[in-house]
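[job 0417] fold request received: Serine phosphatase RsbU, regulator of sigma subunit
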Amino acid sequence: MTSLPLPRQPFQPDVPDNGSASADVTPVFALKELVARLHREQKKVQDLLSSLGFALRSFNNLNQFLELIPLVASRVTDADGGALILFKPNGQVRLQQLHCQDGQECHDIRQALENLTRQISRDDSNLAASSLPPSALDYQVTPYLGSDVHLFGTAILVKNTERGRLYVFSRDPDYTWTPTRQKLVRLVADQTAVAIENDELTIELRKKERLDRELEIGAEIQLRLLPRQCPTIQGIELAACCETANRVGGDYYDFIPTTHDFALSKNQGGKPNGRWSIVIGDVMGKGVPAGLIMTMTRGMLRAEVLNGHSPSRILQHLNRVMYADLENSHRFVTLFYSEYDPETRILSYSNAAHNPPLLWQASTRTIQRLDTLGMLIGLDPDTQYQEAQIKLEPGDTLIYYTDGFTDASNQVGDRFDEENLTAALEWACQHYQKPQAILEHLFERVGHFIGPNTQNTDDMTLIVMQIKGNEENSKTGSEEEFGG
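[job 0417] inference complete; emitting structure tokens
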């Protein structure tokens, strides 16, 4: 605490006490003394405000900075003391800091202001202190300090919202609130508002940094859950890619061995010649919620596949299990589930309202859609799913995709749609021999359609599956047999 300035006396020039002072004081001398005094006061104010600005730049702790506010405000205005009252987000009013002379008088002022803030906080009609009319709080403070106190209060505004009041008071009967003094108090209040806003921005930045880190971890986990590479399956060649619009996406694709023994033998280096599930899905929505549901879908589906049921029965069981979890989330999952048998080249499939895969048949050089009736996963627990089969021939190419492809929009709002995707697939199958080249061509076509400066707002996932010819199968089998 700093002691109060000495009681103010009428200005008396400093002159030698030789008994003839009045004779030696001239108007010019008195004017010089007055100018010198004004310069000293101005320098004092400048130094105090400069120190406050330095504290604003240097302090990392908001409370440390707020401790200076009533002190500086009272010093720059030659007042007896100052008080800082803040309005908390929960509506409570709090005496944050008080500066006045040590002693019983200061104790009485503190107790009076604390009683006032407690009373306002208890009053339900005044809980939202920031909604009070300007200076309404001032009329309540004045009676607590006494009628002999000269009080001036100003608002602390953060983004045009009053977050508190800064008060400066004096008991000097000759003290007046000149425009200069009022301007200085408002200047200190503005510095206080800047400090509060900076502190809140720092807190928000730290929260954002933590959230960004959590999103990075979520994206990394999700990336690890997707297949790291396409499996080697007898008679077919695969290529797949998933591009998320955000760091965490809601698209899902997977390659799942259909039996536990086969999965075990695969992990131990056995030949991948059993039936495989090839699945693609899309969670309605984006970001972390969609990513969490995608992860849940993956785990439940992988467990269901090992039961050995047909594709339609697998979707039916998955829908019933996930319905309870998805019902309250207001999110649903589209899913296309298929099983490929390398021995017969038969693809069995069932669709839960997902975009139907497109099949390029090499023999007829035509494209057909693979689709069955079925509703979204999580929409109705009693949904029945249909099932179909098709025998694939050497040279056939099948693409599984999510609606990020067909819903991709260019700068004028036109969608890429299924017609353009079909045309792009037809051209690619006629000019490329490998699934990876077809996949890259389709992504390139979509990217060219939406434009170089436009980012797709939805996840895009694509699987390309191509049936090998008999000569390629024989070559692959020989390589496996002799360790090629």
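[job 0417] notes: The chain has a mean pLDDT of 80. Residues 197 and 406 are 45 Å apart (CA to CA).
[job 0417] exit 0
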